[in-house]
Every structure is written in structure tokens, then in C-alpha cells.
User: Fold these one by one.
Assistant:
Number 1:
Amino acid sequence: MPKLEYQTAGESHGPTLVCTITGLPAGLPLDMDRINGELARRQGGYGRGGRQRIETDVADFVTGVRLGKTTGAPVTALVKNKDSRLDDLERTPPVYRPRPGHADLAGSIKWLTTDCRETLERASARETAARTLGGVVAACLLAEINVQTFGFVRQILDVRTDASVTPENWREMRELRDASETYCPDPAATERHKAIIRQAKIDKDTVGGLCEAHIFGLPPGIGSCMDWRDKLDARIAYAVMGIQAFKSVEIGLGRAVAGLHGSQVHDPIRYDASKKSESTLGFVRSSNNAGGTEGGMSNGMPVVVTGAMKPIATLLRGMPSVDLNTKQEQDSQYERSDICAVSAASVVMEAAVAFEVARSALDKFGGDSLIEFKDNYERFVETARILPLDPPETVIA
Ligand code: EPS
């Protein structure tokens, strides 16, 4: 049985992007509105460059799907590039002056060339369209066990929203997010974000920010503490750091835990039988500083992930650099780009986190078909709800 995995292929200005997903159970209906909706959302956000006016990203499933449902075979989907011109040297010329912050310098040396284009075409964030596609397919699987995902922009440059996102209000927050041009569920912060991006454009500069993703409805016990490679938080961190331009990832309080006492950090546990049917199985926490994971496993609380995206490396005004052929100092080369892509990155990060959660859920519940996967999930939560399994008199207090 293959594990749930995905791989992407394709260049920014090649003919197509490809996403291949293996290990999906058979019978999963693909919610095409959701998949294409998220692809469209990833194309948007205030501060994007001219490329997004050219492209119309839609998923074209070419293997592993029949009559709208997965068959259990590897799933391949394409996102075609309209701006396809990889072999046209006039329109896609060599790049000899690497952009500080981009993959240009390290990649050109790694692959022993002075033409950074060899690297940048693949390093480009265009690839995140394919990664988003894979993540949203995984989110379709999570929806089958009532696990929902919500991603948004927490901060751009130094303007941060204090909006609080909870299992009760996240749908309302989603409406606010969807009304925001920077995907931030706070209209006042959105206006300030837009002003920051406008000013960066005038200054021929770029800006980054913070993305946040919440996963709701995950029962305790997804992931594992038995092998560090199976820790849910470790997998999420790996996936988020794998997104272009991300420089840090935090779960829950993140690095703030370092400056607090244990009594301030750890989330007290209570039991409320009236909440037994919820995904927490009745274990109530008055705070969620752990961000929904303890010991590398979900604990029933929402999984909360924050990722920091650096400012886009392509600056219209250039940055000090050198020509790789002459070694002479010259400003970095300009390629059409974005001023700010934090909004788009919030869509990518939500999808990337969804994929890791789905992978860990499949590791736990398994199943060749969706029916089996859901049955295994139901049996697990039902059993967990009736613990202890031994007669009470045999349980040592
Ligand atoms: C990117 C440069 C720009 C961005 C691109 C990422 O591409 P282009 O040079 O074609 O204008 O638009 O992002 C996307 C194309 C996308 O779909 O997100 C880069 O250098 O990383």
C-alpha cells in the first residue's frame, strides 16, 4: 500500500505544471469547485504582478479519477501555463545577475552554470499552483471525516491583526477573509496592508508577512510520538518550510514558549461529558497554546500553524549583486514579479498543512477505499469515547 505522497513538476514558463498524488483511497469525490476555487484564490491577493492577469489556473485531472472519484490509482493533474515560452530565448533570456534572496546564486553554482534561469524556472513560486492542487485534494479527504481547514493572512510587514479565530467563529472569519483584498479577516488591517503594498510599489521594494492556518475537527491521536518522523508537528514544519520564501514555522505559541513558565504555557485539561461527541471527545482545554499538538500528536484542539514569508526577492530597484560571467559588481536583474504574495502564500500554506494532516490521518486509519477509511475513523473515535475498555474495578486508580 503506498503512503499518501505528492510530487510536483513543471517550470514557471514551461507548458504545464503537474501534481502527482499517490496513496489516495478509492472512491473519494473530488470537489472541483473547491479545488478550482482555491487555485483561483492563490492567483489573487493585493500586490500580485502582471502574470496573474495572463493565467487562469484550473485543474485538469488526467489519471486516477473516474466519474469524478478517485480509483486508488496514482492521481495526476495538470495546471496549464498560458505564459509558456521556456525555449524562446528572446522572451525568456538568460539571467546572469543573481537576485539576493532568490535561488539564483546557489542554484547556478550547484548546477554549474552562470545562467540563473536554469534554476529560477523551477524555484519560482509558480510551482505552488501544483502544490495547492495536491493540498486541496487532501482537504477533500479530510472533509469526509469532518476535518476543516482555514488559512488567512495574520500580518503584512508590521501590521498585524489581533482577530481571534475559533471553532465557533471561523466560518464568519472566512467571510471576512474572502471580502479582504489581502485575505485578512480584519477590514481595518486590510486597508493598512494595502497602503503598505502601494508604498512598497512606489519605492520599487517588496514586503512579506505572516500566514496562519487552523485545522478544525481533528480527533486526538493523529501523528505519533513513537518515531520522530511521524510527529504531526514535525511533518507540518517540514512541509511549510518547503514553501517558496518561507523562513520560519511555528505551532501554537511557537517560539514565545521560550520566555514563559510551564504554568503559563501548558493548556489545563478538564472533562465535560456533554462535549463527548465533539472531536475533543470531551477533553476541554481553556487555552490552546500547544496549537493542537502534544508529543507530535493531535490533542483534539485546533491545529494552529504560523509561517513567515520573506519579502519577494525580485526588486524593481535591484539589489547589489555581481555578473556571474564577469564577476563585476552590478545590480541584480529584474524579472516581472509580485510586490507582495503573502495572500497567495496563505492559500498555499493552508493546502500544504492539509496535506500533512491528511497523510497522518491516512497513516492512522488506512483503508483502500473511502468507505474503509471512514469506517476505521468512526470505530476509533467510538472506542476512544468509551474508554476505559477494561471493567472499572480492574483499573488501578
Ligand atoms: C515568481 C515570479 C513571477 C511570479 C511567480 C513567482 O512570475 P513571472 O516572472 O512569470 O511574472 O508571478 O508566481 C507565479 C507565476 C504564480 O503563479 O504564483 C518568482 O520568481 O518566484
Number 2:
Amino acid sequence: MTIAIYPGSFDPVTKGHLNIIERASKIFDKLIVCVMVNGTKRPTFTSAERVDFLERVTSHLDNVQIDASPELLADYARRMGSSVIIKGLRAATDFENEFQMALINRKLNPGLDTMFLTAEHQYMFMSSSVIRELSRYDVDLSDFLPEQIIPDVREKNHLIDEGGK
Ligand code: ADP
């Protein structure tokens, strides 16, 4: 059984992420989408909230499992018995970082390969950070976020704008 891992911050999961999840789930026997800790980003949503969002928007995909881990990705993949990391590539700007990460992960775990899926053209410009910013305004988010999580994303931003969490 080929198990692939799709790691990321998913803060929150966007339609761009979901498109990669749906395509990768058709290629591999099992896809684990893992919310990872990224020391350079301060997340808006808790790890539990991000896992909950991912579970809700992937409930139609039988071979997709959602997880969260503070581990190094190379160690996590080894522990899960996976030899493939999936990454989505939006533009040349993603490429340089992802190429470096792929080489580092392979150095740390020589049994691990990184496969890139190109973003679908209508999702190329989407990032969680831009969508978080948009969600503070009265903008229709249905092109950007899966319907199931739009009310939660809006509510969180209202709480933040009001100074709470
Ligand atoms: P972001 O860069 O938006 O904070 P993540 O860290 O959650 O995203 O990204 C996880 C993975 O998903 C990365 O491989 C990233 O390149 C990819 N990705 C992010 N947004 C998109 C998109 N709109 N289309 C395709 N891949 C994407």
C-alpha cells in the first residue's frame, strides 16, 4: 500500500489545498493530510480547529486521513510508513523553498521522495494568509474556501477584531 503525506499549515484549508487533496487521493492508496508546526508562522486557528476543518471538508474521501504532528516531517513520514510527500506548487516563488525542503527531507530520510502537483490555474493565486485577510471584509468567500468552514472562519476573525480569541 502506497501512503502519501500532504503536510502544511492549513490555516485554514482553502479550495486550492482541497484540489490538491482530491487529486492526490486518486493517485495513492492512502493520503494522510497532516497539520504541521511551522516555527516561522504564528497560526490564526488552533491545530485542533485546523484538523476539524480538514476532517469536515474531506469527509467524502474514503482514503484520506487527517492528523496533526509537532514532529520533523522526515521522522513523521518514517513513523507512518510513508515514502512520498505531496506538495502543491503555485508559482516559481513556491518552487525555490519547496526544492530546498525536498532536498533536506531526503537528506534526513533517504527513503523519502517529494512529488509536486501543480496548482489548478483558478487556485494559483490563493494562499491561506490572503484569504484570512479577505475574510475580515464583506467579500463572498465561496470561490476561496470550502462552504462548510466559511462561517467558522468569519466568526474567528470577528472575535480577533474585537480583541478576543
Ligand atoms: P500557505 O502557503 O497558503 O500557508 P500551507 O503551508 O498550508 O499554505 O501549504 C501546504 C501545501 O499546500 C504547500 O505545498 C503549498 O504549496 C500548497 N498550497 C497552498 N495553497 C495552494 C493552492 N492554492 N494551490 C495548490 N497548492 C497550494
